[in-house]
Amino acid sequence: MKNKIIGFLSAGALMCAFSLFLGSAHATLNFGGLVGRYSPNFGELKDYLDVANYFWNADLGFEGGMMCGAAVQYEITPNFKVRGEWKSFNTQASGKDGHGWTGYKAEYKLNMNAYTLSGIHTFTPEKPVSHYIGAGLGKFMTKFQWDETISIRGTPVWFTTGSETEGPIGLQVLAGIRLGTGRVLLQGEAQYIFAKVRMEDFWSVREYDGRRVTHITIDLSGLFLNVGQLSGFR
């Protein structure tokens, strides 16, 4: 976590240096935060839990939820800006059930920290209400933890537990509405993220449909609806 924070602050420092280099009369550096609801698809992870739920009569499932983060934005011209973001999302799923003397218990945790850089074009930036669009890419650091146990008469017999962290490169597109023209800006925004992460170390506690799951791809693609505030310095 310390290295991630240092990396984000370093990116902000580079943007500051870039702004000094350009020396534009219109140049503004903005700092702020954003918060909203993120709804990833989950992909093969959702499919795997659906199969486990059917077999064990369980109720395992990941859901979208709150994602929040921080942003540093540099205005190159009134119409074009570059924005660096850090966003964090956490979710988990757990449940237990069984058949007769056989018991089943499972718990999963998913944590994502996304570091992205986007180019943004603002329409009519001189007006108090303006629209903007943008696109960018970044690294989506994802940690997946799992713990599955099958027990006989309460005694654990088979189990699998582990943790894996991967950082795939992903894309995002965005569109939003900006309120204000001064040093304090408010925005409402929709982002769509395109990213998938493959967890090679995962393996299931038992076979389903005649095969054991030995790796899984988690689809992080999904919609992030958020609101944010940026404070500017010239």
Features:
mainly beta; Porin; eight-stranded antiparallel barrel; two-stranded antiparallel sheet; 2 helices; elongated; disordered N terminus
Describe the 3D structure.
- This protein has 234 residues and is mainly β.
- The protein has a single domain, classed as Beta Barrel (Porin).
- Helices cover 15% and strands 65% of the residues.
- It is built from two helices and twelve strands.
- The strands form two sheets. Strands 1-2-3-4-5-7-8-12 form an eight-stranded antiparallel β-barrel. A two-stranded antiparallel ribbon has the order 10-11.
- A hairpin with a 2-residue loop joins strand 5 and strand 6.
- The relative contact order is 0.20.
- Kindly state the number of beta strands: 12
> Count of helical segments?
2
Major β-sheet, in short?
8 strands, antiparallel, barrel
Instruction: Give the second-level CATH assignment, the architecture.
Output: Beta Barrel
> Could you report the average pLDDT, rounded to the nearest whole number?
86
What percent of residues are in strands?
Answer: over 45%
Estimated structural class: mainly beta
Terminus-to-terminus distance: 31 Å
Kindly provide the radius of gyration, computed on alpha-carbon positions and rounded to a whole number of angstroms.
Answer: 22 Å
CATH level-3 fold name: Porin
CATH C-level name: Mainly Beta
Question: What is the chain-wise order of helices and strands?
Answer: HEHEEEEEEEEEEE
**Uncertain spans:** 1-25
